[in-house]
Automatic annotation (TrEMBL):
Involved in cellular auxin homeostasis by regulating auxin metabolism. Regulates intracellular auxin accumulation at the endoplasmic reticulum and thus auxin availability for nuclear auxin signaling. PANTHER family: PROTEIN PIN-LIKES 1, PTHR31651. The chain crosses the membrane at residues 6-29, 72-94, 157-176, 281-305, 317-341, 353-374. This is Uncharacterized protein. Keywords: Auxin signaling pathway, Endoplasmic reticulum, Membrane, Transmembrane, Transmembrane helix, Transport. One of its GO terms (biological process) is endoplasmic reticulum to cytosol auxin transport. It is a multi-pass membrane protein.
Length: 375
């Protein structure tokens, strides 16, 4: 396939995301108010506790076996590499741009955490980090996709994205959370984490436990034979979970648009609009450069080296997912962590606004290049 054809394949899923996101934004407008504050809270809870665990768990249960886990061992290493390389470049960015002290943890978090995380049941927290769960199946269904038969591509692509989601949540709330906690403690006289904060911190762990159920079902043969397959006694349970999971992607995308309006309003309330923003311009430019230029380039080097050393098997879809992990925007739950520590909250709104505004263009270009690279 030529580069132009691959660009078309990569751009259509992003355009679909943007159209449904725009619909969610429209439904959240005050004059429409279908996805107002209360509705967003309820739908976020529904996605967090029902749709998303069903989607991730069913996809993992279908495709993750003991043999595949052995083959996919490099994925957690790759995800950890994105966090370490991103935070290293964030540290360099801090040394170059010299931002206010209270922004240092935020910068490190935005540069390191890009792995898709689960939607949050809390209304004030965005859930834009599910892009691979939306983009990968859309690419699989596009005519001319380099990843082969659409159904198999969708099945395995969703499993890879689900696995990324589960692993990324662990790193986000251990590695990045502690980086931002340590940084904020340097500029605050005392730790301001409250009981409510601790409850919020536990939410992603609960989500990760639900996803791990998919691992158990898939990896243990006795359980897998009992629940997965046309002849399985409990196949109706797996079918029901899949049906619920099908509702996750369109719902998440609608809420994505609604939460964009929430984030913009939040930023304006805190004086973080584009005009007169207290966020240093070169800091924002630096974060965008790290996320969409330097990390993807380093990702190509890391994944290509792993392939050369036979650490990664030859599945081009798996290699594509590994590469895509380096080209995603910052995790929206960075805003959650900033709120927990009361450090860099308003600046976070501006950073998220710019990084996600540019994500459609950047992710499309990198997806095109990655598909060309692995095909």
């Amino acid at each position: 396939m030529g580069f132009l054809e691959l660009f078309v394949v990569a751009s259509f899923p992003v355009i679909k995301v943007l159209l449904i996101t725009a619909l969610g934004l429209f439904l959240a407008l005050d004059d429409i108010s279908i996805l107002g504050d209360d509705a967003r809270k309820i739908v976020n809870q529904l996605v967090f506790y029902v749709f998303n665990p069903s989607l991730v768990g069913s996809n993992l249960a279908k495709t993750i076996t003991f043999e595949s886990v052995v083959k996919l061992w490099f994925m957690p290493v790759n995800i950890l590499a994105t966090f370490i390389l991103g935070s290293a470049m964030g540290w360099i960015l801090i040394k170059i741009t010299r931002p206010p002290k209270h922004m240092e943890g935020l910068i490190l978090g935005c540069c390191s955490a890009e792995i898709p995380e689960a939607p949050s049941p809390l209304p004030a927290i965005g859930n834009l980090g599910n892009l691979p769960m939306i983009i990968i199946p859309a690419i699989c269904n596009e005519k001319g996709s380099p990843f082969g038969e659409p159904d198999l591509c969708h099945q395995y692509g969703m499993a890879y994205a689900s696995l990324s989601m589960a692993i990324g949540a662990v790193f986000l709330w251990s590695y990045v959370y502690n980086i931002m906690r340590i940084s904020s403690s340097r500029v605050q006289k005392e730790d301001n984490t409250t009981i409510d904060d601790a409850y919020t911190i536990l939410l992603p762990d609960e989500e990760s436990e639900k996803k791990i159920c998919g691992y158990i079902i898939g990896v243990v043969p006795q359980i897998r034979n009992f629940a997965i397959g046309n002849e399985a006694p409990l196949r109706v349970v797996e079918d029901s979970a899949s049906m619920l999971g099908d509702a996750a992607i369109p719902t998440v995308t609608l809420i994505m648009g609604a939460n964009l309006l929430k984030e913009n309003n939040y930023g304006e309330m805190h004086g973080a609009g584009l005009k007169g923003s207290s966020t240093p311009l070169w800091t924002v430019v630096g974060i965008v450069a790290v996320r969409y230029i330097f990390l993807p380039l380093l990702g190509v080097a890391v994944v290509k080296a792993a392939i050369h050393l036979s650490l990664v098997h030859s599945d081009c879809l798996y290699q594509f997912v590994l590469l895509l992990q380096y080209a995603l925007p910052p995790a929206m739950n960075i805003g959650t962590i900033a709120q927990l520590f009361g450090s860099g909250e308003s600046e976070c709104s501006v950073i998220m606004l710019w990084t996600y505004s540019l994500a459609s263009f950047a992710v499309t270009l990198w997806s095109t290049f990655f598909m060309w690279l692995v095909s």
